[in-house]
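pasting for ref
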Amino acid sequence: MDLQELKSHRRGLMIILSSPSGAGKTTLTRQLLSENQKMTMSVSATTRKPRPGEIDGKDYFFVSKEEFSNMIDEDEFLEHAKVFDNYYGTPRGPVEEALSQGHDVIFDIDWQGAQQLTQAASDDLVKIFVLPPNMQELEKRLRSRAQDSDDVIARRMSKSEAEISHWAEYDYVIVNEDIDLAMAELSAVIIAERQKRKRQLWLGPFVKSLVQGG
């Protein structure tokens, strides 16, 4: 087995990307996924009904409230929360399988979910918070979407201040003034985290063969 093949034997990362709405997290996530074949998006379970076009197992795992409750009882979630009248959670099984195969898993969750994941799987976790360059630019980006009313934008802006207050709970903070620079910084973080010794599962056998003259 050559060195490059050996290096591919690593444990995957759990990458949390959090930000206030409009900071560019979705754009960064899409670019990450398009550039990394061994990277996948975490799929949450939810008790809400599917929206038009949503696919079970791809967009969400759609389950009943009874099924969700049973999954909680069986400790099948890495994190879960109630949002308005529906429940959302991250199933443990698919994430663990992806990590063991060397695939990185991206989580689009807020600071509360990040806290739960930290308690459940801190060794595998990399937490990244994305900030806007200023609040005026954040509002401009929200308005440029032309998707929300003034009232909705005002609520998003109000909520963003509470979300930003948790920035210090994250391992890395990226200020997204320029999307290309932010993407470069995000990629650098992920490359460095992949190189951590504890995630290089091939190193032990390699060093052993090295000192034995292999």
